[in-house]
Automatic annotation (TrEMBL):
The active site is at C173 (for beta-ketoacyl synthase activity). One of its GO terms (molecular function) is 3-oxoacyl-[acyl-carrier-protein] synthase activity. The lineage of its organism: Bacteria, Bacillati, Actinomycetota, Coriobacteriia, Eggerthellales. InterPro entries: 3-oxoacyl-ACP_synth-2, Beta-ketoacyl_synthase, Ketoacyl_synth_AS, Ketoacyl_synth_C, Ketoacyl_synth_N, PKS_Beta-ketoAc_synthase_dom, Thiolase-like. This is 3-oxoacyl-[acyl-carrier-protein] synthase 2. Its EC number is 2.3.1.179.
Length: 426
């Protein structure tokens, strides 16, 4: 039986052939997956800096990270900000799994779409201090190219010799999902054969914690196990996390031609705006519901086909009811209350610009392995969130399609429809 490499509309099918991650669970996709499936809480007291004067003392840090232990030179580790280092480590893993040989590729057909919500915030904070204390002549001459967010895709392109489109898409906490979704469209319509896509963030820093905390977005809980509580009635804000997620995406035709093994297929992408508020999601959930509907429809699915939702699920008072309303609006009250829902932020905290990519990886593994992970931290259901939040892994559960949702400040909504790879097009 031959494999149909095209969608019914004649465009290219897009598959994931490599994945890489660095997260508060550690370095590698396996560490992330084991932590999520094992309901591990990777949130702990902050070690990187003194939090005595801060209102918040917990975060999802990447602890003990040394870039030179993960394939980077001392010069690279010295010059690259942490958000770039995270992107490189995750991308090296994804490239390794994909088996992509850039020497055998047309580099102009290989693109990089990799974003960061905040970029080099630590270099920015450090250089302001230098400017005010020591004067302008003492500011690092590499301050600008070190700090700006587009250095992640730029340096990844240099590292691997990728000469196609090279972009940093920034939509706050939906950055990773928007980078992946845009990459899917590029491949689907023939602008690239391969795209390295994802998101990265180094948000555990004094200035970020102060800003988010003063905004009222962060929980001030002192117990790590009671801090990040997606969909739980006790939730009081998100926990800052950091890391990166990277995926190698290819047209199915290209992947099969070089003998690659698809992990999962991205069948649809929905992207909408709320046009409502600077930081709050539209409380009716209309925007994210519309994005979810777009993603399913683009893949040729209906809400009745939905296996589970990997929710944005930040554990803030506003986000979780909004997503709950969106799911019930999409599927109807009765069906919407039954569809399994997971948020991995109880394990990792909220990794901001990296979240959409890290969560897409978990969603891909979920559909590939016929399972749905539990939500770490969830214990007491909230009547305002009447959805089926899992407290234990659901296994032996084949799915046609799942959705991975991401929402960002400014009213940005993204939803990725991810399906198990099958030989025939949907």
């Amino acid at each position: 039986m031959s494999i149909n490499v095209k969608r019914p509309d004649g465009t290219n099918r897009v598959v994931i052939t490599g994945m890489g991650a660095i997260s508060p669970a550690g370095v590698g996709v396996k560490a992330l997956w084991d932590a999520v499936m094992g309901k591990q809480c990777c949130i702990a007291p902050i070690e990187r800096f003194d939090t005595t004067d801060q209102d918040v003392h917990l975060a999802g840090e990447v602890r003990g990270f040394d870039a030179t232990e993960h394939g980077m030179t001392k010069k690279e580790a010295r010059r690259f900000e942490r958000f770039v280092q995270y992107a490189v480590v995750a991308s090296d893993e994804a490239m390794g799994q994909s088996g992509l040989d850039m020497e055998a590729e047309d580099p102009t057909r290989v693109a990089v779409l990799f974003g960061s919500g905040i970029g080099g915030i630590e270099e920015l904070q450090k250089s302001f201090k230098t400017l005010f204390e020591k004067g302008p002549k003492r500011v690092n001459p590499l301050f600008i190219p070190t700090m700006i967010g587009n250095m992640a895709p730029g340096l990844l392109a240099i590292r691997y010799g990728m000469k196609g489109e090279c972009m940093d898409i920034v939509t706050a906490c939906s950055t990773g999902a928007h980078c992946i979704g845009t990459a899917v469209r590029d491949i689907r319509h023939g602008y690239a054969d391969v795209v390295l896509a994802g998101g990265t963030e180094e948000s555990v820093s004094p200035i970020c914690l102060a800003g988010f905390s003063n905004l009222g977005a962060l929980t001030k809980a002192e117990d790590p196990l009671c801090a990040s509580l997606p969909f739980d009635v006790r939730r009081a804000g998100f926990v800052a996390g950091e890391g990166a997620g990277a995926v190698v995406l290819e047209s199915l035709e290209h992947a099969l031609a070089r003998g690659a093994k698809p992990i999962a297929e991205i069948v649809g992408f929905g992207s909408t705006g709320d046009a409502y508020h600077m930081t709050a999601p539209s409380p009716d959930g209309e925007g994210i519901a519309r994005a979810m509907a777009q993603a399913l429809a683009e893949g040729g699915f209906t809400p009745a086909d939905l296996g589970h939702v990997n929710a944005h699920g930040t554990g803030t008072p506003a986000n979780d009811p909004t997503e709950s309303k969106a799911l019930l609006s999409l599927c109807g009250e009765e069906v919407g209350r039954e569809i399994p829902v997971v948020s991995i932020k109880g394990t990792t905290g909220h990794t901001l610009g990296a979240a959409g990519a890290i969560e897409a990886i978990v969603t891909a593994l979920s559909v590939a392995n016929d399972c749905v992970p539990p939500t770490t931290g969830f214990a007491e259901a909230d009547p305002e969130c009447p959805v089926n939040v899992l407290t234990e892994p659901l296994t032996g559960y084949p799915q046609k399609v799942a959705l991975s949702n991401s929402l960002g400040f400014g009213g940005h909504n993204a939803s990725l429809a991810i399906a198990p790879f099958c030989r025939t097009a949907q």
